[in-house]
Amino acid sequence: MDLIETTLKEYVEKTQCTLIFSTHSPAQALRLADEVLYLEKGRLVEQGPAQGLFHSPEDERTKAFLRHWSLNS
C-alpha cells in the first residue's frame, strides 16, 4: 500500500466518514473499498461488496474485465 492509500485509510478510520473514490485498478479498489460499483461506458454494470464482486462477479462484462487482472486479496 502506498502513502496515499495509507493516508486515506487512516483518515476514514479516524473520522468514520464515507469516502467515495474512482480507480481503474481493481487491486486498489479491493485494498480500499468495502462496496464497489463497476461501471462500463458510464453505466452501472454491477454493484456489491468488494470481496464478492471481485472474486465472484455475476455479470459477464465484469467477469471479462477482471480476466485481465491478478487479484490476490
Kindly list the characteristics that best describe this protein.
globular; alpha+beta; single chain
Can you characterise this structure?
By secondary structure, this protein is α+β, with helices and mostly antiparallel strands. The protein has one domain (3-66). Helices cover 45% and strands 18% of the residues. The chain has helices spanning 3-15, 26-32, 50-55, 60-66, and strands at residues 35-40, 43-49. A two-stranded antiparallel sheet has the order 1-2. Strand 1 and strand 2 form a beta hairpin. The mean pLDDT is 93.
Estimated helix fraction: 40-55%
Beta-strand content: 15-25%
Number of helices: 4
Low-confidence stretches: none
What best-fitting shape do the alpha-carbon axes yield? globular
Terminal-residue CA separation = 12 Å
Outline the biggest β-sheet: 2 strands, antiparallel
The secondary-structure class comes to alpha+beta
What's the order of the H and E elements?
Answer: HHEEHH
- Rg over CA atoms, rounded to whole Å, is 13 Å
Number of domains: 1
How many β-strand runs? 2
| Strand order across the largest sheet | 1-2
Offer a concise description of the structure.
By secondary structure, this protein is of the alpha+beta class.
